[in-house]
Request: fold
Amino acid sequence: MTTSVYWILLAGWLLAGRASAQPSAFSQEWQFAHYLADKEEVDEASFVLQSIDTRQLSRPQLDSLAYLTGWLAYSGKSLELASQHLLSVSSGSPFYIKSQYFGAYCLTFQQKLDAASAVARQLPAPDSTLRELRAFEEAGIALLQRQFQRYDTLRQQFRYSSYALSAEEKHLDSYRTGLQAQKRRSPAVAGLLSAVVPGLGKLYAGKPKQGIAAFLPVLTLGLLTWEGYRKDGPKSLRFLGFGSLFTLFYGGAIWGSTLAVHVQRDQFNRTYDNKILFDMHIPLRNLLNR
Reply:
């Protein structure tokens, strides 16, 4: 169905539905917005929800409105707005469980890990499957926080038998091993190594090609500086020019080595964080997005 057809439907809804003061008006509006959301017409669905007068709504109706508003924000990747609405759904709503789990995930994806952990600890888990899912989500947050002991405690609740969780549970175990095995390289050591041999610090940081690229110009400029000093003396333009360039490149090699350690560490952590977030999301979609 084209966008223009949706706007025709919206126009008809505004003319017919909004003029009515029937008790079922909210239900009709909500169902229409839900229909549009199912068709991935997020903007149109949001327009319908924003037009609802909330002053006369009951608590269950407000919960339904908050859920669908949050879900649309989640679908549109507006995760801060999504978490606010989803986590406002009360425990009496049929959408409560789904809203709480996805609201916690939205906080996690925003790297609001302390808040996400606090919500995850209180996630509703009325059956064994949801208890395992809650432990799984908490364990994922613990890994993102690099709290390995807490992860080890939570993983004791993994059964590795659920179709919706087993693969991701094994993935989290492998991520925990990889994170724990990360080599703790020091920026200070990298800088010291490059002060001794330019580029050696980048080799230490795991960047061998950059190390060679840093070593060669410093070596060349060092030789040219020495040649200028030997032939023309310490006051010659050749010595001063090449000497200045040598100093610049030598200092840059030291600074670049310390920076390389930080960059390598950030890349390593970002790669694992993205994997963890991806695997935390899959069971939520499998178990709750029905």
